[in-house]
Write a structure and sequence with these properties.
globular, 41% helix, 14 strands, alpha/beta, 3-stranded antiparallel β-sheet, 18% strand, single chain, 16 helices
């Protein structure tokens, strides 16, 4: 087994299904551009038939990225498939249609209410239609890990005959174990006579914490495409974390059939940390400090014994050189005297590609922050981008904020917002200055939100560090997913207001209300 493992990134599709992780088009483009720099082989850009927004995102990404394959997801339904084909068309010969159909007894009986024969027919017809529109076709047998092995093999053989070039064997509900998953992939390798005409792909969920382990077991059994997301974000407990899977292959290639020193995949691993941060910022999903590879503590050593060993020889307690995944590459901080060109160059270095209007807005924020603190660090700069992108393209922009608070005062906030170059000012009383700001924003925008999560952290070192606030806000009925928002400022109250307004703008963009 000397052929490289293909990485299929579904951050913009399955990852975005994580509650609170919804991204607008501008944010998806930022992620897609960074995924291209990372070197993923396939970007699953969305599910085109779900909404006009998803269609536009897939179509725009297919037109924008130049090296990755771009996939659009579709059910084995004619309308889905035709919309997916139209959405990925700008990618030309890099376009892929990814069709799926459930195959397990549970799904056949209770979801689809169809027989094995009907499922088989639908799968073949779906693949044939997709193949008539796009050459690169992937078929996924949804809930494959709970499907009878012989029937799964029958479906896989039939869809390959129909034109599928990749067959995906998903562990849709995170049910299987590494040894069991290895057996499934090995069974298909041994019992599907045309299996050599397609790439076997795996798509694992992390419901019992084994998504990465299962994916690696499948690679050992002969799978050559791994589907996952950056930071492992995704529905329920998330997906296979691409960065973990990639570094497991890079660090230990021999157990997976690769020669010592052989590169088992195409990723530029030095872009991993940057990609993790871009995805975290654009999705609003924070990375836990102890997260493997990309967490802030991933290469931190507090034990004196460990520190001594690291100083003597890094390999004593580090199996991965942090620089290999992008740690330790922060450049000297900027100051208020830095010019627009320097800020633009640093933003591009951090993975942000901004329009002239967006750059102007970020630069204005940068200058104001530079007046308040001696140095503006890379994380400070990235934090300014988060709400600036939405402020430029959103409905409302924060112009001014004043608040009164104290142990003997009634918390009051006066907020001025700008919409279409017109200012709106209102004030409100709350049970604290942050709550008062949120209420004032609600009064102006007429979009009522309920705060369900609130986090604040310092983006860099020093007492003058920027405060970065992350919120999740519930709008409307409880069944709707909460919307994430982020904001940054040297004043935490202002950062909180920016984060909440960021969530309001996202909600307006997604739903069209209040615009």
């Amino acid at each position: 087994m000397s052929d490289k493992v293909i990485f299929f990134d579904t951050t913009l599709r399955d990852g975005e299904q994580c509650p609170g992780a919804s991204m607008n088009l501008r944010q998806k483009l930022e992620v897609a551009r960074q995924l291209e720099k990372l070197g993923v082989d396939v970007i699953e850009a969305g599910f085109p038939c779900i909404s006009e927004g998803d269609y536009e995102a897939v179509h725009t990404i297919a037109r924008t990225v130049k090296t990755c394959r771009v996939a659009g997801l579709a059910r084995c339904v004619e309308n889905d498939i035709r919309q997916a084909a139209a959405a990925v068309a700008p990618a030309g010969d890099r376009a892929r249609i990814h069709v799926f159909l459930a195959t397990s007894p549970l799904h056949r009986e209770f979801k689809l209410k169809k027989s094995k024969e009907e499922i088989l027919k639908m799968a073949v017809e779906g693949v044939k239609l997709a193949k008539s529109l796009v050459d690169d076709i992937e078929f996924s047998a949804e809930d494959a890990s709970r499907t009878e092995h012989d029937y799964l093999a029958q479906v896989v053989e039939a869809v390959i005959d129909a034109g599928a070039t990749t067959v995906n064997i998903p562990d849709t509900v995170g049910f299987t174990t590494p040894s069991e998953y290895y057996t499934i992939i090995k069974y298909l390798k041994d019992n599907v006579k045309n299996i050599d005409k397609a790439v076997i792909s795996v798509h694992c969920h992390n419901d019992i914490g084994m998504a990465v382990a299962n994916s690696l077991a499948a690679v050992q059994a002969g799978a050559r495409q791994v589907e996952g997301t950056i930071n492992g974000i995704g529905e329920r407990a998330g997906n296979t974390a691409i960065e973990e899977c990639a570094m497991a292959l890079s660090t230990r290639p021999e157990p997976f059939g690769f020669a010592p020193g052989e590169k088992p995949h195409n990723l530029n691993t030095r872009e991993i940390v940057k990609t993790s941060r871009v995805v975290s910022r654009m999705s609003g999903m924070l990375v836990q400090r102890s997260k493997a590879i990309v967490g802030e503590n991933a290469f931190a050593h507090s034990s004196g014994i460990h520190q001594h060993g690291i100083l003597a020889k890094r390999e004593t307690y580090e199996i991965i050189d942090p620089a290999e995944v992008g740690w330790g590459e922060t450049e000297l901080p900027l100051t208020k005297h830095s010019g627009r060109a320097a800020v633009k160059a640093r933003l591009e270095r951090l993975g942000h590609t901004l329009s002239n209007d967006e750059l102007t807005h970020v630069f204005e924020r940068f200058k104001r922050v530079g007046d308040s603190k001696k140095f503006v660090y890379d994380d400070d700069l990235s934090s300014l981008v988060d709400d600036s992108i939405d402020t430029t393209n959103g409905t409302w922009r924060l112009a001014n904020i004043q608040f009164i608070a104290g142990s003997g005062a009634m918390p009051t906030a006066t907020v001025t917002l700008v919409k279409d170059d017109e200012e709106y000012t209102d004030c409100a009383i709350g049970n604290g200055p942050v709550n008062a700001c949120f209420k004032a924003i609600d009064r102006i925008t007429q979009v009522q939100g309920e705060l369900v999560d609130y986090n604040v952290r310092a983006t860099s070192i020093g007492q003058d560090a920027l405060g970065e606030v992350s919120v999740k806000v519930q709008f409307g009925q409880c069944e709707c997913k909460p919307v994430s928002g982020k904001g940054a400022a040297t004043d935490v109250i202002e950062a909180s207001a920016r984060a909440y307004l960021n969530a309001v703008n996202r909600q307006i963009t997604f739903s069209g209300i209040g615009a």
